[in-house]
Amino acid sequence: MTEERLQKVIANAGLTSRRKAETLITSGRVKVNDQVVKTLGTKVSEHDQVTVDGVPLEKERKVYYLFYKPRGVISAVSDDKGRKTVTDFFDQVDQRVYPVGRLDYDTSGLLIMTNDGELANLLMHPRYEVDKTYVAKINNIPDVSAQIKLRNGVEVNGRKTSKAKFSLISTDHKKNTAIVRLTIHEGMNHQVKKMFEAVGSQVQKLSRESFGFLNLEGLISGQFRPLSHLEVSQLRNQALGKRV
């Protein structure tokens, strides 16, 4: 009989992410066979009845979407300030989906939406190196020294980032601005903005144009499309193939 950790079972049911599932457990909102369970790591089988806030956990069909997030939208399932969230674009989707990782409120671009907690954790975990490419407009033209620093890694939040790919797309010498492309595989909060700050640049506009092999081709801001079975498989294999 196969057993899995309770938080994983909750996440895989599409109810929430694994991290939030852990909070549900420790808050006493989860029962296994009518008994409140607050211990993380508790294992359950398919024969155990799991309820969250009194509602039985049902296995939900896994769905996967590629979403072109607009600027001015929160990468969350809800917002206490009443701002528009990424899930507002998925009202017609039967399953409860949530974003894999996040993009800042003022950042646009590619975001994966799913109810597959296992894949979400795989893609977000720092030991899995999935490339993410961003295009940014910055307030100056980085010199050779700044470009080398970005490629070799800069100090952000007290630690050095991994090596990155950097290229200049265009420059405007009259306005002293540049359009640049940066590819990283880490996912620290505000990492791209902070990397540019570390070399004396301020990001004025930012968009994520690709995640792994996925890109936004064929979509406009606010649109989404389902990922194919092949794309989901390739995404999972790409992450696992780069495991450290």
List the helices and strands and how they pair.
Elements: E1 3-5, H1 6-12, H2 18-26, E2 30-32, E3 35-36, E4 43-45, E5 50-52, E6 55-56, E7 64-69, E8 98-99, E9 107-114, H3 117-124, E10 132-138, H4 144-152, E11 155-156, E12 159-160, E13 165-172, E14 177-184, H5 191-198, E15 203-211, E16 214-215, E17 224-226, H6 229-241
Parallel strand pairs: 9-15
Antiparallel strand pairs: 1-4, 2-3, 2-5, 5-6, 7-9, 7-17, 8-9, 10-14, 10-15, 11-12, 13-14, 15-16
Structure description:
- The chain is elongated, with a radius of gyration of 20 Å.
- It has six helices and 17 strands.
- β15 (203-211) and β16 form a beta hairpin.
- It is of the alpha+beta class.
- It has helices at residues 6-12, 18-26, 117-124, 144-152, 191-198, 229-241, and strands at 3-5, 30-32, 35-36, 43-45, 50-52, 55-56, 64-69, 98-99, 107-114, 132-138, 155-156, 159-160, 165-172, 177-184, 203-211, 214-215, 224-226.
- The mean pLDDT is 90.
- Strands 7, 8, 9, 10, 13, 14, 15, 16 and 17 form a nine-stranded mixed β-sheet that branches. A four-stranded antiparallel β-sheet has the order 3-2-5-6. It has a two-stranded antiparallel sheet with strand order 1-4.
- It starts with a strand and ends with a helix.
- The chain has three domains: 3-56, Structural Genomics Hypothetical 15.5 Kd Protein In mrcA-pckA Intergenic Region, Chain A (Roll), CATH 3.10.290.10; 64-126 and 218-241, Alpha-Beta Plaits (2-Layer Sandwich), CATH 3.30.70; 132-211, Alpha-Beta Plaits (2-Layer Sandwich).
- α1 (6-12) packs across α2.
- Helix content is 22%, strand content 30%.
